[in-house]
Amino acid sequence: MTHLTSARRTWYVPAVLVAALAVFMAAPAYASAPGHGKPPREPAVQVSIGSPELDIATGQCAGAPITVQLTNPGEQAVYADATLSAPDDLVLQRTMISTYLPAGYTAKVSVPVMAPLETEPGTYPVKVSAGRSTATASIAVTATAPDPSGNLARSASKVSASSVHSGYPLCGAVDGDTDSEHWGTTGWNDGNSTIWPDWFELQWNQPQTVGRVALHTLNSTRYPVARYGLKDWDVQTLVDGQWKTIASVRGNSQGVVDTTFEPVQTNALRVLLLAGNGANDYSRIVELQAFAS
Amino acid sequence: MTDSVQEGEVRRAAPHTRRRFLTVSGAAMALAFGTNLASRDTAEAVAVNLRSDPFTLGVASGDPLPTAVVLWTRLAPEIFDPMGGMPDKTFEVQWQVATDERFRHVVRAGSATARPEYRHSVHVDARGLEPGREYFYRFRSANHLSPTGRTKTAPERRASALRFGIASCQAYPDGYYTAYRHLVEEDLDVLLFLGDYLYENAVNTVAGDRFDTSANVPDVFQTSPVTLDQYRLFYSLYKADPDLQAGHAALPWIVTWDDHEVVDNYAGAVKGAIPTEDFLVQRANAYRAYWEHMPLRTEQLPEGPDAKLYRRFDFGDLMQVSVLDTRQYRNASPSPTITGEEQMNWLLDGLGESRARWNVIANQVMMAEQRTTLTDPPRLNVDAWDGFTEDRRRLFDGIVEREVEGVCVVTGDTHTNYANDLRQNFADANSRTVGVEFVGTSISSGRDGFDTSPQLDLQLQANPNTKFVNGQRGYVTFEVNRDQMRADYRVLPYVTQPGAPVSTRTSFVVERAEPSLKDV
Fold first, then answer.
1. Of A172, A223, B135, B158, which is most buried, counting CB atoms within 10 Å of its CB?
2. Hey, what domains does chain B have and what are their CATH numbers?
3. Which ipTM value was assigned to this complex?
4. CA angle (B225 as vertex; B223, B231 as ends), nearest 5
5. What is the pTM assigned to this prediction?
6. Scanning every residue of chain A, which has its alpha carbon at the shortest distance from the alpha carbon of B219?
7. Tell me: the pLDDT tens digits for A97-112?
8. Do A11 and B82 count as a contact with CB atoms less than 8 A apart?
9. Looking at the domain covering A152-291, what would its CATH class be?
10. pLDDT in tens, A129-166
11. For residues A266 and A279, what is the distance between their CA atoms, to the nearest angstrom?
C-alpha cells in the first residue's frame, strides 16, 4: 500500500488483483508499415533560417520576424520539434515549433523577434535547434531614436490595453500612422463590443514629463467618427500606484482630440475609455500620442 | 508483459527516434499507450517528483465497449508551456478503475507511460470490465493524484433502456461552458460530441466574450494555430476550463470532429487557396493534437494527415451508433461526396447488418434539406449535406432498400436547435420518412443566443419537415427504450456570464414503428 501525502487519500491496489489483470496493448496501426523491424537510417531534420540577418530597433512595437525553415530530407514522414533560444536581451514570441514533416517537405514558420527598449544596441543571436541541426540568426539591434516631434508614446517601454481584437493589434496605435483611411492596417480595436470601460496604457522605464495627449480615434470616409469614434474618455496618470484623472473628454465628435493639462512627471499614462459613438460599440484608436507640452 | 518488454518493443519499432531533447519524433514512434500491470516495485522505480499538480487538464473517458473504456489524462503542470511544463522524459502514470467512488473495490489497475512525443498524454484502454456498469477511475503520477472520473461501459446483449446526450460547438471566447454543469446532473450513459470541440479562432487577452480580466490569455493565442505546438496550446487553454473538465469527468464521451478542429469550412485536402501540400501538413498537426487530447484508442491515432475517426459502437441490442467523419473525405470531383466512397459503404453495410432497435448516426452538418429562403429555387447551405445530395440520396435509398429501422441522425454545426423528419425525397411531400434528425445547438458558439428570430421563423415556414427551431445555447438529452425515443432540448438563456440556469425548451418522441417526430 502506498500512501499519498499530497492527496490525503489512499492509493490502494489489492495485491490479489495484480495477478488477475488482463490488459493489453493495442498494436500501433503502423507497426506493420514497410520498413518496420529494419528501419532505414533516416537523415535528421535540418533547420535553417530564411533571413539570417535581421535589423530591428528597440521597443515592443519595433520587432520583426525571422523565418524558421524545417526540412525533412528523408524518405519517411516525421513529427519534428525545434526549439528557439536567444539571450535575455531579446524576446521571442515562441520557443518551440512542432510540426509534421512529410518526406522532402520544408515547413516555413514566421517567428516575431523583439528587443525591449532597454536592450543595449548590438548584435544578438537567435539559435534554432532540431536534434543535431542548428541554425543561428543574427539580430542587429539599434536604439529607437527619440521621436522628432517629441511623441513619447513612440518610446514607451510597454504598451498594453484592456483587451485586443484580433487583427487590430496594440502596436497599431503607436506606430506613427495617424491616418484613419489606413484602418485595418493601423490602429487598435478592443476585443469586446458593449463592455465598458476599456483602457489603453503607455509605460516608461524612466519618468517622463507629459503635458499633452493627442488621441486619434477612427474617423475615415467609410468609418466616420460620429458612428465609429470614441465619445467619452479620461486621461489618467499613475501616482503612487493609483490612477489619477487629469483631464476628461465628453461627447466627442472629432477625429483628433488634443488634451492639454499642467505637465506631470509620470511612469505611466492611460486613457480610460468610457463610451463610443455607436457602431458595434467598440473602442477604436488609430494613434495615441503623448507630448511634454 | 513487463515494462522492460514494452520498452524493448518501442526501441525495435523506432530505433532512430531515441529521445534527445529537441530531436525528431519519428512518425513510426510507438504509442503513449501503456497498459502494463502496475506493481508497486516498477511504479516506485520510475517515480519522479513533479513540483506541481500535473493534472491541470482533468481526466476523461470515452469510446465505451461492453468490457472496455478508454481513460485519458495528460501531465501538464504549466498549461501555457509548449511542453506543458514537463521535462523531455517519459513518466509512469498509474491508473485504477473501481466500482465505488472511494476506490475500496478496485477491479482493474495498471501503469501507462506518458511520453513527451505525445506531450505526456495518456490513453489507457481499460479492459476486462463488466458490461453496462458504472465505474470510477483515477490516475497517479509521482506524488500527485488526479481528480476522480466516472464512466460507464456499454451494455451487452439485451438492453431495455439507455440515456445519452449530444453536444457540439464550444468556441472558448464566445462564452462559458455552463451547459456542462447541468449536463453532468442528467444521469446520462454516454455523450456524443458532434464536432467543433476547438476553434482555430484567435483568443484575446480577456478570453473574448467571457471578458475575464484575470484570464491574461498569452499573446501566442492571438494568431490562429497552424503548427502542432500551437494546436496543442489551444487544447490546453480549452481543456483547462473547469466546466469542460466536469463534463468529461462525469461520463464517457464518443467524439468526432467537424471543421474548426482544423480550420473553418475545409473540405478534405482543400482550404481556400492554401497549397494542398501545406494544408495537409496543417491538417496533420491538427489531427495529431486532437488525438492527443481526446479519449480515443490507437486505431484513431493519425498517420500524418490521415486518421480513421469514423467508427461504430453497439449498446447491446438496443442502439447502434455510427460515428461519421464528414470532413476528411470530402471531395468536389469527380462527383461531390461528403463521406467518401469507403465510409459510405461502411455506413450502409453497418446499417444493413444492424440488429439494434435504434440506429443512431452521429453526424456533423445538417442532413435534412434546409431552405434558408422562400425563393424558388431556395438557397441552401452547401457546406452541409445539401451540398452533397447524391450522397444523401444514396444513404436514404440504402436505408429503404435495407429496411433499416429506428434511424435517428444526431447533428451539430449550426449553433441552432432543429428537429427534422428525414424524407427519402424532400421534393415530394408524400415521400416516405426514413428517419428523424435532431440537430443540437452549441455549448457556447454564437454567444448568448436567442429563442427565435425572423430568419428562423422563415426557415420553419420554408421547410415543412422541420418541426422546431431555436437559437439558444445548450444540449439535447435522449431517453431510449425498445419502442420509443424521447428527446429533450435543454437550453440556457446566456453564456457570456457564468451561472445560467437550464430548462427544457421542447420535447419530442419517436415511435420506432413509425419514425417521425411527435409532440410530447
1. B135
2. 1-153 (2.60.40.380), 154-519 (3.60.21.70)
3. 0.88
4. 135
5. 0.85
6. A93
7. 999 999 999 999 999 9
8. no
9. mainly beta
10. 998 999 999 999 999 888 999 999 998 988 988 888 87
11. 34
